[in-house]
Amino acid sequence: MSWAASPKEQLRARLLELAEQGLDGWPAEGPSRPGRKRSRAVEAPAAEAEPAGRLARPAPSKPAAPKAPAAPAASPARRPLGQEDDSVWAEFGLQELGSYLRDCTRCKLAQGRKQVVYGVGDPKARLMFVGEGPGRDEDLQGEPFVGKAGQLLTAMIEKGMGLQRSDVYIANVVKCRPPNNRDPETDEVEACERFLKRQVALVEPEVIVCLGRFAVQCLLRTKTPISRLRGKWQQYEGTPLMPTFHPAYLLRNPGGKRPAWEDLQAVMAKLGLERPGRG
Ligand code: URA
């Protein structure tokens, strides 16, 4: 500038310069200007100003990335079953897990079942029985092995082994009734077997009796026929497992009762139990 400009003229000239550079207006149009949002950079310190306490997190080393659009209330426990990750229930106790599974929709068996049939018996039983999956009676009553085959199993436990049904724990590989009592399908077993595994881990039985071809082949990951497996000790997740015939098979093939009884006697010997009436 070649003339001696007044401070007012100098200011005007500076504003014109700024206007040419596209920077006009900013001092007058501060954050409170209607229609303009504060930038994230302005909002961020408010979040950082959260007082240290229960929700305090370590300060991020880099400036926080812009947040994703607000997600719906993010409690993993409230996500629909089938979408949650296993850590949601991994610490549940036996009863808690049963309540949690009541509304399970992890597999297609949920569509036809009346109830989830979780398990029954002593939560600290020394002996656990594992079957295939609920039938019609179990689906109606919500308890494993209560139909005709179940009555035979109860007799085997009570009359044969001299125990009470309530002394043992009884569960199935799948917890919902397959339609028309068909075998559970691979995806159904895959969705459900983790819960049986957790039941076994929680009950910590000394011995598992596995009932019938389907459950035995499933737990042992084998295709070997039950006729070759029964009576021979196996292991499931580190627990001794005795394969034997399913009581439904025994109802149709009474000739299998004698070998099944031998299997149960081997189980009793392992548990140090006396045969009833032998003092
Ligand atoms: N058969 C099974 O395998 N489980 C039951 O609970 C009933 C019948």
Rg measurement, Å: 34 Å
- Overall body shape: globular
Question: How many individual β-strands?
Answer: 6
Q: What strand line-up does the widest sheet have?
A: 1-3-2-4-6-5
Mean pLDDT: 80
Bound molecules: uracil
H/E topology pattern: HHHEEHHEHEHHEEHH
Report the major sheet.
Answer: 6 strands, mixed
Q: How many angstroms separate the termini? A: 120 Å
Helical fraction: 25-40%
Structural class by SSE content: alpha/beta
**β content, as a range?**
5-15%
**Poorly predicted tracts of residues:** 15-78
Number of helices: 10
Describe this structure in words.
This protein is an alpha/beta fold. The protein is built from 10 helices and 6 strands. A 6-stranded mixed β-sheet has the order 1-3-2-4-6-5, sandwiched between helices. The protein is globular and about 115 Å long. Mean pLDDT is 80; it is low at 15-78. It binds uracil.
List keywords for this structure.
single chain, globular, 6-stranded mixed β-sheet, binds uracil, alpha/beta
